[in-house]
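Assess the record.
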Amino acid sequence: MRFDRISKLFCSSLIVSAFAFSAVPASAADNPYDGLWTVTIVTNSGNCEPTARYPLTVSEGRVTAPGADVTGKVGPQGLVRVSIGPAFANGQLSGNTGSGKWNGASGGVPCSGRWEASRQ
């Protein structure tokens, strides 16, 4: 008899847990682009640094970098919109790679170029 009560309690708990889990809506945590990325920035015009490489992290669709003033997002379809200090970048991620364009300034002189990313 005790086994029956434990079994019923366990089954009831399992059903309630399964229902509660299935009722949780999909969130930004499901972003397929979450993870560590290496981004290479290339300057095409202006006096900004010719080439630079940075590690970036995407977590729940938000872009961050250690010790840098980075804000932005990667959408679930891979659309990228980021600001890095006074510079702005946009582009597209697909699978484990991505690319786009950026623009900003160095010493008040406009700069622009392209960026490429790869997932680590």
Q: What stands out?
A: The longest helix spans residues 2-22. Residues 28-119 form a domain with the Lipocalin fold (CATH 2.40.128.80).
